[in-house]
Amino acid sequence: TVVILDFGSQFTRLIARRFREMGAYSVILPGTAPLERIQQEQPVGIVLSGGPSSVYDENAPKPAPGVLDLNMPILGVCYGMQYLAHEAGGDVKRAGKREYGKADLTEYGGELFKGIEGEFVAWMSHSDSVTQLPQGYQVVAKTEDTPVTAIENNETKRYGVQFHPEVVHTPKGGQLLGNFLDICGVSRDWTPQHILDELIAGVQEQVGSEGRVLLGISGGVDSSTLALLLSRAVGDRLTAVFVDHGLLRLNEREQVETALRGAGVNVVTVDAREEFMHHLDGVSDPEQKRKIIGREFIRVFDRETEKYGPFEFLAQGTLYPDVIESAGGEGAANIKSHHNVGGLPEDLAFKLVEPFRTLFKDEVREIAKLLGLPDDIRMRHPFPGPGLAIRCLGAITEEKLDILRRVDDIFISGLREFGLYDQCSQALAVLTPIQSVGVMGDERTYSYTVALRAVTTGDFMTAEWARLPYEFLGTMSNRIVNQVHEVNRVVYDITGKPPATIEWE
Ligand code: XMP
Q: Residues in the active site (predicted)?
């Protein structure tokens, strides 16, 4: 294991992902994690991440006492490097100007850069710099503006880089991180097949030979993959419950049922469409809609699962990003109350089975491939728990949902047909309450406006609107207006997040 101590950089997770992509298991812990906590992970190397602090700040976060004395390689990135240098008696100063963006290394060498050749573009984002080297260290890379861009102490195996090797803007950064893994001598057995075998064995051990497991499925990649995994692990002792709240997309329920039943998963579908419509009738406030759906979902799930129980275990598709105890992220404002199938209340009398707690989404997708999940589900964009209800602005009706379903299907099928689906992180259609005047075949129309939205993002916390080709957007607009008579105007949402959110409600 490589332990990454997080000092609050927005890129910390990327470091873990890069290591894992190279087959090395790594975990993220808070920068100030106690030594015993770090040792629990049986580390063979440590990374000190970047972060917003300056080593001179009074409250600058520091690794726990003893961490720097551990007899293993340590790599400091940005703030991490400054901390290493400062602790070893070097000098760190606020640079005259912030250095932000791409910089070319004018020279580089040493262990970290071993085997790397040619131009090295490094992504910088810092205002402090190491101005005087600590004892035992040497400079191993420079840029025009930063004479001390990377340092190393080969005796103690301490390394520091001022730039961010983990981001795509540092194209050869992966090689550098790979060199660090080699220096640590960490085993490279974190492969999808290995992960899958371990997960199955882990579930079998937890659940035992009698235990029965309940799982709520949504049609998304996480719960579908989990269903396949659990069914491999415990067979028919898994009951996968699919609540159809009537807010799903065209043919979605059938698609998921077919994929999972075909693989031998014991799927129970609950048709709760009327109940949800009844409770949502006339409700137009977005938060209210979300709350009702979340509440009803739990009620229906509870009631229905009584019929198939008793269950000792409840499985959830919780992913690593949801459990990372990293620096920062506290006290975020409540923008929307999220509901999802995984978010069942904890006071249900179950033991939780959460095999994906250590995985990133792309790792789940790799495992899904091994488990034979069809690609159209495996590579699917996320879909929110409250479903189409939050894409049909204002109070929902059957008629509006039906319009939205047809529009969404044209747009999503179109993205697939034009090979654009995988280039977007998420795409959706929104039915607005706006009606406007149009003309079709010499006739005046007065119909709905739909908005199309597509975004690219890594973590869904921020997003850019996708620059879809005009040609494609034009084709979509024609198809939608021609095939969905209730719509006479199509607009494309060109707002990023922030300031907008991805969903419209
Ligand atoms: P926003 O609209 O907040 O969405 O930018 C960010 C991501 O979260 C998804 N989303 C949800 N997912 N339950 C979910 O499981 C929810 O209640 C929910 N609300 C939004 C949204 O689709 C996007 O991927």
A: 78, 164, 166
Q: Is it the case that residue 333 has pLDDT exceeding 80?
A: no
The model scores a pTM over 0.80:
yes
- The answer to whether residue 389 sits within a structural domain is no
Element containing residue 377 per DSSP (H, E): helix 375-378
Domain contains 450: yes
In the predicted model, what is the mean pLDDT of residues 45-74? 95
Handedness of CA 255, 259, 260, 262 (dihedral sign): positive
Q: Is the C-beta atom of 317 inside 6 A of ligand 1? A: no
pLDDT at residue 505, rounded to an integer: 97
- Looking at the structure, tell me whether residues 18 and 114 fall in a common domain: yes
Domain containing residue 262: CATH number: 3.40.50.620
- Is 164 annotated in the active site? yes
Residue whose Cα lies nearest atom 17 of ligand 1: it is 338
Distance 335 CA to ligand 1 centre (A): 11
Cβ of residue 361 lying under 6 Å from some atom of ligand 1? no
Say yes or no: 346 and 426 in one domain: no
Q: Please tell me whether residues 197 and 180 are part of one structural domain.
A: no
Q: How many domains does the chain have?
A: 3
49 & 150 share domain: yes
Asked if residue 137 lies in contact with residue 88, where contact means CB atoms within 8 angstroms, the answer is yes
Among the listed residues 217, 302, 297, the one whose alpha carbon sits nearest the alpha carbon of residue 260? 217
Give me the interface pTM, i.e. the ipTM.
0.99
Instruction: Name the strand (E) or helix (H) holding 153.
Output: strand 150-153
Q: Which of 152, 166, 296, 354 is catalytic?
A: 166
The CA-to-CA distance between both ends of the chain, in Å, stands at 41
In a domain, 386, yes or no: no
* Centroid of ligand 1 to alpha carbon of 338 (angstroms): 7
Of 166, 184, 202, the residue that ends a domain is 184
Joined tokens for residue 87 = 């602790």
Together in a domain, 29 and 176: yes
Q: Read off the pLDDT band of 343 (50, 70, 90).
A: low
Separation of 130 CA from ligand 1 center, angstroms? 41
